[in-house]
Design a protein that fits this description.
One of its GO terms (molecular function) is excinuclease ABC activity. By secondary structure, the protein is α+β, with helices and mostly antiparallel strands. The chain folds into 4 domains: about 100 residues, GIY-YIG endonuclease, CATH 3.40.1440.10; about 140 residues, no CATH class; about 170 residues, 2-Layer Sandwich (Nucleotidyltransferase, domain 5); about 80 residues, DNA polymerase, domain 1, CATH 1.10.150. The chain has 19 helices and 14 strands. Helix 5 packs antiparallel against helix 9 and helix 7 crosses helix 8.
Length: about 500
């Protein structure tokens, strides 16, 4: 693209945080940067040509293409920029080419593990949590652990406990003193498990474990221990709300950068598929049909960006048109700026599902996002305008990642469908009448006692209820009486007065 085309192209960038990759005419990445607003930051390169820096003038003159990777925060953009620069070593990047590392909290692999802060991750059997961007965050977590969930800090080899007097930290409540046999290995391992849950961000699970112990201690009248556990729970809530870590990148052949690079080459994608959207459909014999979109970023699922759509325009069993509706609604939101666009779309199914998905994108004027489908029977990958599918080896990491996206979309689709179906069963039969909502249905059940009682009312009495009237009363009675006596006993919404009142509240 020339400069004018680039300026027009950049206007479509999102006003969101992320990383941008600039390429030269040969497709080589020449510069990687981060931005609080991708649209504003990248546009700034083309506002004028008289930059003071010769390096910057040369960079702008060399740019022929720009791609972006959306992140959810500036912190994630910072970390992503750092990693991509180290991976690609772009010519015009200078500052981050050095091998700067972020901090990890390490739980050692000893019999009685310790906590260590390190910037080097080794294959030594230890548990590494992080990386952490903010040093103050690491310090806050370590202070919390030291005060409420302390582990030993001494470097002594503890092959077996020795008889003796524990150090001052035991007296201050800062150590369990395994060196002197004052706690069992099982008790110490439980404490280590608590610490790992806290550091991995699983605060809810840890709090549930601590709450059970607190209740038990209170029942056994160990009130001091119960109070300590209560204070621990409160402290965990405070810190866990402020914790900002990111998923770590595995090493070796499973390095997700390598996998995404391999995927880009296998499918001839224009840019690295940093964000992948996966789609699936679920229903029960054409009823309660739900379409879903799941999102993988950096090779990891991001459930906060999952979306589900109750299908509205399709009746009966028609997965193809349901898929088309799902993509249309999903990417209409993206075009409105409500959601970021992906670099790759994965459809669960074969070439027919792919065709209907492409119809949805064409209808929205989206022609620059690669789309593929994965057929489950033989795990074949179908691409647009290609008759023969691509068959990857079953051990290929690219196929494993696609299967992960496909399986996660399938799981989320089934869960969403079951939830919708269960909610429909809870719905009162009265709510199926046009003009009756949940509040008005609850009012009627509260007033008359039950759905059966409403069905047996004279039309005049029902019409006299607040907000009903003759026409609506007639529709209600017609709906309730169409089921007959046999089904009225098992009718959804046959609530008692108390249950209806509770629902109304």
């Amino acid at each position: 693209m020339n400069k004018e085309e680039l300026i027009k192209f950049v206007k479509g960038f999102p006003d969101k945080p992320g990383v941008y990759l600039m390429r030269d005419g040969h497709g080589e990445i020449i510069y990687i940067g981060k931005a609080k607003s991708l649209k504003k930051r990248v546009s700034s390169y083309f506002r004028h040509s008289n930059f003071a820096s010769p390096r910057l003038r040369k960079l702008v003159a060399t740019i022929r293409d720009i791609s972006t990777m959306r992140t959810e925060s500036e912190i994630e953009a910072l970390i992503l920029e750092n990693r991509l620069i180290k991976l690609y070593q772009p010519f015009f990047n200078v500052d981050l080419k050095m091998n700067e590392r972020y901090a990890y909290i390490k739980i050692t692999a000893e019999k009685y593990p310790r906590i260590v802060v390190t910037r080097i991750k080794l294959d030594d059997g230890a548990v590494y949590i992080g990386p952490y961007v903010r040093v103050q965050e690491v310090r806050a977590l370590l202070r919390l652990v030291e005060r409420y969930l302390p582990l030993r800090s001494c470097k002594s080899e503890l092959a077996r406990p020795v008889n003796g007097r524990p150090c001052m930290k035991y007296s201050l409540g800062r150590c369990l003193a395994p060196c002197c046999g004052l706690c069992s290995e099982h008790e110490y391992r439980d404490r280590v498990a608590d610490v790992v849950l806290l550091l991995q961000g699983q605060g809810a699970e840890l709090i549930e474990r601590l709450r059970r112990r607190m209740d038990r201690a209170a029942r056994e009248m160990r009130f001091e221990e119960a109070a300590h556990l209560r204070d621990t729970i409160r402290a965990i809530w405070r810190v866990s709300r402020q914790q900002h870590t990111i998923p770590d990148i595995p090493s070796g052949q499973d390095n997700f950068f390598e996998v995404l690079n391999a995927m880009q080459k296998a499918f001839e994608l224009p840019i690295l598929p940093w964000r992948i959207d996966g789609f699936d459909i679920s229903h029960s014999a054409g009823e309660y049909t739900v379409g879903v979109a799941v999102v993988f970023e950096q090779g990891y699922p991001n459930p906060s960006l999952y979306r589900k759509f109750n299908i509205k325009t399709v009746e009966g069993i028609d997965d193809f048109r349901s898929m088309r509706e799902t993509l249309t609604r999903r990417y209409s939101r993206c075009l409105e700026g409500q959601e970021p666009l992906p670099q790759l779309i994965l459809i669960d199914g074969g070439p027919v599902q792919l065709d209907f998905a492409m119809q949805a994108l064409d209808g929205l004027g989206i022609h620059n996002i690669p789309i593929i489908s994965l057929a489950k029977e033989f795990e074949e990958v179908y691409l647009p305008n290609r008759k023969e599918p691509i068959r990857l080896d079953h051990t290929d990491p690219v196929l494993r990642l696609l299967q992960h996206v496909r399986d996660e979309s399938h799981r989320f689709a089934i869960t969403s469908h079951r939830t919708r179906r269960a909610q429909s069963f809870k719905r009162s039969k009265i709510e199926e009448v046009s003009g009756i909502g949940k509040a008005k249905a609850a009012m009627l059940i509260t007033k008359f006692g039950s759905v059966r009682a409403i069905r047996d009312l004279p039309a005049e009495e029902l019409a006299a209820a607040p907000g009903i009237g003759p026409a609506l009363a007639k529709r209600i009675l017609a709906k309730l009486n169409e089921d007959g006596d046999e089904n009225i006993n098992n009718m959804p919404g046959e609530e008692t007065v108390d249950a209806a009142a509770k629902e109304q509240n």
